[in-house]
Amino acid sequence: MRDRLRIEVLGNLRLRSGGTELDLPASKKTRALIAYLAVSGRPQTREHLCNLFWEGPADPRASLRWSVHKLRRATAHVGLDCIRSESERVYLNPDAFDLDLREVMETDLKTASTSSIEDVAATFRGRFIEGLDLPLCEGFEAWRTYHSTLALSLRTGVLRTLAERLREANPVRADYYGKMLNTLVAGNEEISGRAPYETDSRAQTSTIQLSPDAQEKVNAPSLHFCRSDDGVRIAYSIAGSGPPILRAAHWMSHLQYEWESPVWRHWITALSERATLIRYDQRGNGLSDWDVSDMSFERMLSDLERVVEASGVDRFALLGVSQSCSISIAYAVRHPEKVSCLVLYGGFAKGWRMRGDPSSVASHEAMTTLIREGWGQDNPAFRRLFTELLIPDAKDTDSKSLDDLQERSVSPENAARLHEAFGRTDVEEQLARVEVPTLVVHGRRDAMVPFNCGREIAAGIPGARFLELDSANHILARDEPAFEEFIREVMSFIENPLPAMPPSR
After folding, report:
1. What is the pLDDT of residues 56-100, one digit of tens each?
2. How far apart are CA 14 and CA 23, in angstroms?
3. How many other C-beta atoms are found inside a 10 Å radius of the C-beta of residue 110?
4. Confidence class of residue 18 from pLDDT cuts 50, 70 and 90?
5. How do strand 276-280 and strand 233-240 relate by DSSP bridges?
6. Side-chain half-sphere CA neighbours of 188 within 13 A
């Protein structure tokens, strides 16, 4: 049996096989390439990799081919065909390697044994891919910075857990991990403040008290995974502090890239400033498993239930956006004791195939074909159509980010399947059974989901409040007045929800 390749990114990049460290190419971009492929965990288009690393050279594809060749030579004796390349895609064979970062993320600190968490603590050797900075590659640097913050957040969580667990059983060991956490916080600009921590010298162990600014940075979006009823891995993220808001997963989401993207980052920042924001990528999408057989409405509703269980939140405000409004409605009807209030933005109760409009059905069927053929590709016509539907008032940077989000968030086939699945949604009969306070919000000139759909939801839910926004954007832009109004009204409603009317029986 051949040894698997082990890729370590929690410190300087290392590749090992059978206990032997492999010699890596001297080129920083080549080493950064294998780190990127390992952490992303899925095939990447050649065009995307060229834009990420070699936008400058006269022949970026030749540079990519050279790097792939060098990596193949470096891993050749492992014998597992680790580096794979097709006509337009490059990736790592998922059956050929293990990744230290993935092992850490999949460790449940609540249920894992103390000894196994100590093993996890030993996995961290330094900063994420330490020394592999590429200042001229802005896209890669944004990706590296995100994962550096993520790794730092994971490490502080591990050390804090050990210090707390061992406080009674082994005070000396607890003190060791407490001091390590203090040193980590003090030595990192990402989480340090004027008074980042204090050590209580009267106690046997270190008592860590972070300043509010430092605590906020320690609590940068953390990434977790749970399993659905049918074994699909679902990624979810937690950011901020305060009353919990759970954003139900919508089409074309990516937990990591949303944090970097000008299309979504202002949403995440604004909501997590005053609340604990929980997001997740639905199946077939983002950082959740892409290879899934069942994309039914019931499975997606079950995924939301699993995320609620895994995150440990007891009662929360549920935010539905676009397609996830229908999922949110169904969840609130099934679990009213969990939902403190319901906010539905830009959504519908009946999908495009169920509304009975032949013209709309024909348009959406044509869009399904376009999605399969043009999704994530350098197709100006498709890009223009899609941008006009989602953000007609978009700036150039938003349009480019939307293009990148297409490629990173979901495959063309899965995008088409999700579009079809939500087209068959119908929760109209459940509207009258919603028992929780509800705010429905819709842009007056929304081209993606007709304005009438929002009004119909509000009319069907007893006591629901309806907020009309002066916007044509399906995804509200960061600098438009409608976004400020949205955040102001949503946070006010979440903090002081009006009581719901008794549901119809």
Report:
1. 667 889 999 999 999 988 888 666 578 888 888 999 988 889 999
2. 9
3. 8
4. confident
5. antiparallel
6. 24
DSSP H stretches of helix in 235-323:
255-260, 265-272, 297-311
Which DSSP state fits 278? E
Buried b (16+ CB within 10 A) or exposed e, 10-27: bbebebbbeeeebebbee
Residue-wise pLDDT for 255-311, tens only, equals 888 877 888 989 998 999 889 999 999 999 888 888 888 999 999 999 999 999 999
Convert 436-462 to b/e letters by CB count within 10 Å (16 or more is b): bbbbbbbbeebebbbbebbebbbebbe
Neighbours of 120 (CB within 10 A): 21
Listed residue (170, 160, 228) closest to 204, CA to CA: 170
Q: What is the pTM of this model?
A: 0.61
Give the integer Cα–Cα distance in Å for 347 and 364.
16
> Could you give the maximum distance between any two Cα atoms of the chain, in Å?
75
How many residues in the chain? Answer: 505
Q: Which amino acid is at 363?
A: S
Nearest to 92 by CA among 159, 21, 169, 9: 9
> What is the dihedral sign for C-alpha 359, 365, 370, 376?
positive
405's tokens? 């989000």
Q: Alpha-carbon distance 221 to 253, whole Å? A: 15
When the pLDDT of each residue in the chain is averaged and rounded to a whole number, the result is 84
Give the separation between CA 503 and CA 431, rounded to whole angstroms. Answer: 9
| CA atoms within 13 Å, Cβ hemisphere of 433 | 14
CB count within 10 Å of CB 356 equals: 8
